[in-house]
Amino acid sequence: MIKRLLIGTAAGALGVTFASGAYAQATNNTELEQVIVTAQRREQSAQDVGVALSVLSGETLDARGVTNVNQLQFQTPSLEVIPAFGGGQPQFRLRGVGFDDYATNNTPTVGVYVDEVAYPVPAATQGVLFDISRVEVLRGPQGTLYGRNTTGGAINFITNRPTDQLSAGIIGEYGRFDSAKVEGFISGPLSSTLKGRLSAVTEQGGAWQRNRTTGEKLGDADRTAVRGQLQWTPSASVDVLVNAHYGRDKSDGQGLYLLNVPGQTGDTRYNATGWGRSAAFARLAGVTATEAPSRDNESGGGAITANIDLGFAKLTSISSYETLKRRELNDWDAKPTSESDTFWGSDVDIYSQELRLASKDTGPLNWVAGAYYSRQTLDETFLTDFTQSLGFITDTSYRQKVESLSGFGQLEYSLTPRLKAIVGARYEHEERDLENFATKIGGAPLFTNGNRHTSLNELSGKAGFEFQADDNVLLYANVSRGVKSGGFTVYNSPQSDQINAFQPEVVWAYEAGFKGDLAPNLRLNGSAFYYDYRNQQVLAVVINPTNGAIGRITNAPKSEIFGAELELQWSPAPGLQITQNAGFKKGTYKEFDDVDANTAARNPTTGLWSAQTIDRAGQRLNFPRLSYGGSVSYTWAVGDFDIQAATDYSYRDTATSFLGREFTVDSFWLANANLTIQPKDGPWSLGLWGRNIFNEKYDVTRNYFLASAKIGAAGRPATYGVRASYAF
Fold this sequence. Notes:
By secondary structure, the protein is mostly beta strands. The protein has a single domain (about 1-725), classed as TonB-dependent receptor, beta-barrel domain (Maltoporin, Chain A, Beta Barrel), CATH 2.40.170. It has a 22-stranded antiparallel barrel. A five-stranded mixed sheet has the order 3-9-10-7-8.
């Protein structure tokens, strides 16, 4: 491990990646800058916020090739984002708090926000990231300051705002596998009270996989997105930001490969894959029998954010509408046969309204109070081709409606000049309705009672203390209660009990930490946590006395997670920047009598089904225990130019699976590097970049939909290329 770390660090000096042109120029100053965040719904230095928080600038995201929320898992500690079966449904996990579900309808444990607008449907978070100012990753339950309530944490993306002066920029990138990306913006004043910004991005190419039989390539990107913003400031007390955006994704899907495990001949080439489906399934899905895994998704929406200075407080209103039209074709058996091929047709509409009032007093008391309303609808069709495995095609469809109303608030009071008390609360009411659920075979539904309802009435909150030990060291301790909604298991099934609602889950989180600027050039932050997890939502088996074993999401009564994180920033010499981060977490079930599906049997006398149970108490929860990452960059002057060499690297520990050892994802290292040249105070930059520079062979996930096809989703191999930017 240490050897790989040293190699990764040295790669920065060799320089095989490019940064975006917005890097720190050569200077004799080693003092670290203060990063301003809005994690507490007001502008503060990140070092003054008593929560575990990681911040990455938009320039850092560009330099490291982060264009999707999933890739943040390699940039921050204790975060995993796994695409289910390599598809477009992400499974978020932060500090071990996660939710494994390949369906679209249930809420995630980690809230994703763009400019304070929540994206509560996981599939809707997969758009391309561009023109980003920064991202803030908050670990631990959030709810007293946010529109949505989450048990794991929040990821906040803040886009670049319209500028007071005319400015524009363009970045172009070309790399291995004919990958290309172009991003640009133009921004500036339109009148004395109105300014605007228009930004866009397109990504093309990059196919690195091959059909093992035909040699056909797979993996080309075809994504385009545009965002327009108007900021109106009619007076010193009123500010209104209007945002409208649209995206289209017609990229190839992820190809899966066959694992080399007992009972199955695996692929010897890591980039090998295969696909194919029956003619009948192709007609239902509106595709061809030989069409490669693909998607044809459209997303769009807008928001109006108004801030009004009332003198004693600031009133904020955020009105938003988001829509997603998802059409995604996957091949989950990775073969030309039709054993388990899938098609998703999803139409999502989300409307939300948030009102928030925040104090402006600079005295000992600060407060925020607000209300939040959200209405979302999801119409979905899920087709599965089992023609050559089970002998039929399933056609599952349903509508889901969710309405949520909540009130929230938080108070901060300075008991002394150095000691602050914090208390917050949230009450949420939610109605969740599943309508007209049906799984059909040959056009006939397997059961007809396809309506279900569940509701949520929960109080969550936070209490804590912050102690300013000296001007540069903050100590904090918090206890918080987070709640995640219940929901429905909407897989294709002949059993009506499958769609019965599972309960909400609750996390009691206990956390203590510190944030220290130990010297002008050295910053060290750390936190430790313990989570008391109640009714954890897990994919398991239940027994219906009449119908037998049914796979569905259920609740494990008690489990626990504990761990810690450290983050370091250091500038030991002029031009030299070093960052390090590490996370550790461990979790076990404390109380969970799981059904042993292998023992399910019908009583010949009564005709009723039963099964033995397995006591899971003490069994490890399935997530990686260790995460580690860092970066090293050095900038120096050569005549009239600045040159920067940099590397970043990450390690992810072994991820065990409840499916068995065959599906364990082994630990892996990834390393990137960059070399950039830019004239001093000049408008342009040129560079080289490389990602996964040691060509690490690793898996994103392993799974199976049917036992006849045990598959893995491989990570991208080594890529490298050139990049250029111009801005004024």
